[in-house]
Amino acid sequence: MNIIVCIKRVPQTAEAEVRVDSSGKDIEKDRLTFDTNESDTYALEEAVLQKEKFGGSITVITVGDEDSEETLRIALAKGADEAIRIKAENFDELDGFKTAQILQSIIKNMDYDAIFTGCMATDDAYSQIGPTLAELLGIPHASLVTKIEINDDIAQTHRELEGGLLEHLEIKLPALFTIQTGINVPRYASLIAIRRAARKELKHIGADELAKDGLNSNSFIEELFHPPITKIAEILTGSPDETSQKLAEIIKEKI
Amino acid sequence: MNDIFVLIEHRQGVIRDITFELLACGRDLANKNNAKLTAVILADNFEKIIDKIKTQAHKIIAVENPIFKEFNAESYQIALVEIIKKENPFLTLIGHTAFGMDLCSSLATELKLPFTTDCLDIKIDDEKLSVTRQMYDGKLNSKVVLKESPSYMLTLRAGCFPAEDSSLDAEIEKIDSPISVEPDYRKFIEYIEIVAGEVDITQSDIVIGVGRGIKEKDNLPMIEEFADAIGGVVGCSRPIVDAEWLPKDRQIGSSGKTIKPKLYIALGISGAFQHIMGMKTADTIIAINKDPNAPIFNEADYGIVDDLFKIIPVLKNKILEMKA
Ligand SMILES: Cc1cc2nc3c(=O)[nH]c(=O)nc-3n(C[C@H](O)[C@H](O)[C@H](O)COP(=O)(O)OP(=O)(O)OC[C@H]3O[C@@H](n4cnc5c(N)ncnc54)[C@H](O)[C@@H]3O)c2cc1C
After folding, report:
1. Pocket of ligand 1 contains residue B155 by CB under 6 Å
2. Are strands A3-6 and A9-11 parallel, antiparallel or unpaired?
3. Would you call A158 an interface residue with chain B, using a CB distance cutoff of 8 Å?
4. Does domain A2-226 have CATH number 3.90.1210.10?
5. Could you list the residue range(s) of the whole structural domain that residue B215 is in?
6. Are B125 and B264 found together in one domain?
């Protein structure tokens, strides 16, 4: 079972203040921490679980800048065999469509049974790469996947729908699966594995090794801005004792 | 301008709410741009669906075939490629749902149409299309311009375009299905419902929602005690279920339960739209979060910007004192 996993390094913005940079089209990154995109860690774990069952090898690919090599090394430490960085700095206006075309141009020459991607990157929230890449490669796909059981070349697949309802599908391999969080419990990389991964060779692919013509973006960010505020909570201020007192009174009144 | 298409989403014989939001958005765009709105229905039994749609669009294109009883992105794609190529709509609107997320990107790619996903607003100026999207955990919006094209495809976020009554009388065009056998590379087998546990969070007047801000499973008992004191039950955001700290039937949001309690208290929950969709109709919403910029404060009625571990024990005692 040869599996390709597409991963991305993203800023962790859930608890951080996010500021627009001077271009107006990107964010200030210097004060943010970065990590592997959440659903990508589940995609990688799923690949490692399948490899433990069937053997084979795992290749992780990112279209990312030099810093994202750290993300690739963590993936190697968790069980990936090969890692490829396609140099994002060689390309501009990377929307989901263009990124998928770049990935396709590399993956089409590789030998694989399955491709796993995360179901959504938390930075741009497109959820486009997986199904677009599958279409460009001419293979079937299933998105928002919460279970994969492979027998020969058929994957019994669960997709998660609204309300937690699941859809059971049969997908013929080779196929692409966009992995939803919660499908497994991702492992941590051991320190020894991290040290070992630090010495591993990464493969780099630049723009000159790709047919650059014909790579198109669909969409262009013109401007980033703070969401207009339509409603704002009444914020209770004071010490924990004071805010708790005020809140307890509000709660008493409401119930 | 050419037509605006809306793809009707249905599941288990019922039209999904998002469909009426898409139709309202499509009608508005059609009116403003002197275009017609066409609803496209792929279904096994289209009579069941048509009555509800007939007043909502200028035209209905209906494809009836048993394989469209359930959604299969690959069968849908084969049929829709034919229809869209032939009809050449200016814009096709699909819900940003488990259905639309599975379908739009690969369908648009095959058709070579510019597309984007999860749109909150759409503007058409001079047949140029731009949309508003959300990025970075809902902390920023983006204005995105699509490459110029005679035809586009978008998915729309639920809850952004209110459904509206309408009194149109759609002309109906039935067309033969371009496909009648499910492709052998993707087959629908069955639906599986989530297993119900001992607590039904949809039945409680008071729900305490916990999110990733509680940090560790060991902190859950503290939340349970608080819920007991206040007379509520504990629900949660998705990461808590992903980590297997609480069962799936406690999850609130688009891929979990929708609740309508009298009081909802969100503890350490950032307020992702998928979560908001499950609790926004609560009568009163309270949020405790240490991040003053957390989107949950734009949904809540009252908030405390502080560490929940400092607030909850004190708040619990205050409530117990008041009850005594
Ligand atoms: C297809 C799809 C479906 C989804 N369905 C759902 C769904 O049904 N329900 C759902 O909830 N999510 C769903 N999600 C996930 C959603 O996008 C978010 O990732 C998730 O809701 C985030 O959960 P959270 O707010 O608990 O965590 P985070 O976003 O990580 O936020 C944690 C919050 O805790 C705060 N915090 C941290 N420590 C403290 C402290 N000590 N005191 C106070 N506050 C603190 C932080 O400031 C932050 O705001 C779905 C995603 C996808 C792609």
Report:
1. no
2. unpaired
3. yes
4. no
5. 201-323
6. no
Burial of B261 per CB tally in 10 Å (0-12, 13-18, 19+): buried
Together in a domain, B101 and B161: yes
C-beta B269 within 6 A of ligand 1: yes
Q: How far is the CA of A172 from the centre of ligand 1 (A)?
A: 34
Q: What is the pLDDT of residues A153-206, one digit of tens each?
A: 999 999 999 999 999 999 999 999 999 999 999 999 999 999 999 999 999 999
Residues B126 and B226 in one domain: no
Q: Is the ipTM of this complex over 0.90?
A: yes
Q: Which residues in chain B touch residue A244, judged by CB atoms under 8 angstroms apart?
A: 304, 311, 314-315, 318
pLDDT in tens, A218-248: 999 999 999 998 889 999 999 999 999 999 9
Domain range list for chain A: 2-226
Mark yes or no for CB contact A247/B305 under 8 Å. Answer: no
B24: domain CATH number?
Answer: 3.40.50.620
**How far is the centre of ligand 1, averaged over its atoms, from the C-alpha of B240 (Å)?**
9
- A212 pLDDT band, cuts 50/70/90, is low
